[in-house]
Amino acid sequence: MGPRKDLRLCSRRDVLRAGPCAWAGLRSADGASGVTPAVAIEQAHAEMWRRFIDRHGVIIDFTALDGSVRLPSPEECRLGKPNALGWWSPIENGAMFNGQYMDAIVNRWRLTQSADDARKARRLMQGLLLLNSISAVKGFIGRGVSSDGRSHYPMGSDDQTLPWFYGLWRYYESGIATPAEEARIRAHLTEAAGEIVRLNWSMPAEPPFGTRGTFRGFTFKGAARQLFVCKLMHAVTGGPQWAQRYQEGLREEDPATKKTRLSLCERGLTAEDGRLDFWTSCSDVASLRGLWELERETAVKEAFARGLEASAARAMQGLPLAGRFDSNDGTVFDPDWRMMNQWWKPQTSAQESENLAKAQLREFLRVSPRRAKETAYVREPTSASWVVTLAPDAATLRQRVPAIEAVITRYDYARLYYSQFFWVESAWWRLKSLG
Predict the structure, then answer these.
(1) Is-contact 231 269, C-beta < 8 A?
(2) I want to staple 426 with a disulfide (CB 3.0 to 4.6 A). Which of 86, 204, 334, 386 is the partner?
(3) 106 backbone dihedrals φ, ψ, rounded to 5°
(4) What's the whole-model pTM score?
């Protein structure tokens, strides 16, 4: 038996030592995996830590297959190139991805009790705190950092900020955090949450942009996010103002529809929300899972459970997208995102930045069509797999295991340019917790 087949029987340490080439013989003609889910997860884990975690402990969006990456310069961040949101750059989603990935690493550590896994969780936590320490604007959560380890784009978002809260909470309550770390995390959470509330649930941004994104509004997204921040802040600080905000927010009605935030959470993530991007919507469902874990009132907890199950059922519909991805597809990806700078122009509002970014993406996809395939057929089904595992009913989840494992084993992770597959780890370690 040759070395490539032997890899299926290797230990975790052997898998992590295996280079990308060792996986080449384990794929069928259409790119489907010949490995077990456990081995596929170790490959995914190894690729995340080989290529996608920067020296500050912050996840970057994409690299070349050898791990090289062209970070924005401090000057490009200051000018907002390719755009002031940092969209389509390698540091677009650090706060979001760190916070979401923490779920995987904490649950991995809970089962392995490995010092190495605890160290990795700590690195992600340190990255999250860094992103709240790089701006003079109080409460600002950055997306990532430039080559100097501090420069950054001037706007975050609600999609970045909610996972920042979630990831720090997961680390805080994991059992890994030291008392000193708990105090430091508590201080960061308190300042950021207080500023967001002061801004009527809007996210602080740097001048001239002011704010961008909100936890306000009566949608499933807004309801889950606002309620979760209130609930976790009460759990972490004990402040009675957070309990009051939570109770008031839970039953407050939308003046237009008369729906409460509780009823929106009970409905969960459904087709009523229109076009779904699971990679951003998974944060909403993670918030709902956090609410379910923290809630003590039986009727409310059961309503949250129904919302989690509805969300999982919806996410099951996204899993088959994985079957449309071919790891052997030679579609081009050019990691030189700076080609978009030729369309750059100064921006003074979030809307101007969004308009510019959308035009730039059309041009980027012309030279890097592989991006569209990875976002549609890797990012969506892998994030959906995590959503499925967030529902609390173990018996139902066991029935869904084969569909989730089919996603996990679909990819050759060493041949993906984007880090946006890490949710398979989150799904896997929740499955393993079933016993």
Answers:
(1) no
(2) 386
(3) -65, -45
(4) 0.92
The 3-state DSSP class for residue 181 equals: helix
Instruction: Give the integer Cα–Cα distance in Å for 305 and 397.
Output: 13
Phi-psi region at 140: left, alpha or beta (left = phi > 0; alpha = psi -120 to 50): beta
> Could you tell me the sign of the dihedral formed by the alpha carbons of 270, 375, 358, 223, in that order?
positive
Distance separating alpha carbons of residues 51 and 417, to the nearest angstrom: 10
What percent of the chain is modeled with pLDDT above 90?
Answer: 89
The pLDDT tens digits for 287-304 are 999 999 999 999 999 999
The DSSP secondary structure of 46-79, one letter per residue, reads: HHHHHHSB-TTS-B-SB--TTS---PPPHHHHHH
Measured CA distances, 357 to 62, 86, 190, 212, 348 (Å)? 17, 9, 33, 15, 14
Whether residue 255 is preceded by a cis peptide bond, meaning omega within 30 degrees of 0, is no
Contacts of 141 (CB under 8 A, 6+ apart): 95, 131, 132, 156, 160, 161, 164, 192, 203
DSSP letter string, 127-165: HHHHHTSS-SSTT---S---TTSS---S---HHHHHHHH
Question: How confident is the prediction for the chain on average, in pLDDT?
Answer: 92
For the segment 33-44, the average pLDDT, to the nearest whole number, is: 91
Q: What b/e string do you get for 214-242 counting C-beta neighbours within 10 Å, with b at 16 or more?
A: bbeebbbbbbbbbbbbbbbbbbbeeeeeb
The tokens for 52 are 């996608």
pLDDT above 70 covers a percentage of the chain that reads: 91
From the number of C-beta atoms within 10 Å of its C-beta (0-12, 13-18, 19+), residue 367 rates as middle
- Which residue, 413, 154, 132, 160, is CA-closest to 279? 160
- Whole-angstrom distance, CA of residue 261 vs CA of residue 222: 8
How many CA atoms lie within 13 Å of 24's alpha carbon, on the beta-carbon side? Answer: 4
Q: How far, in Å, CA of 268 to CA of 283, rounded?
A: 12
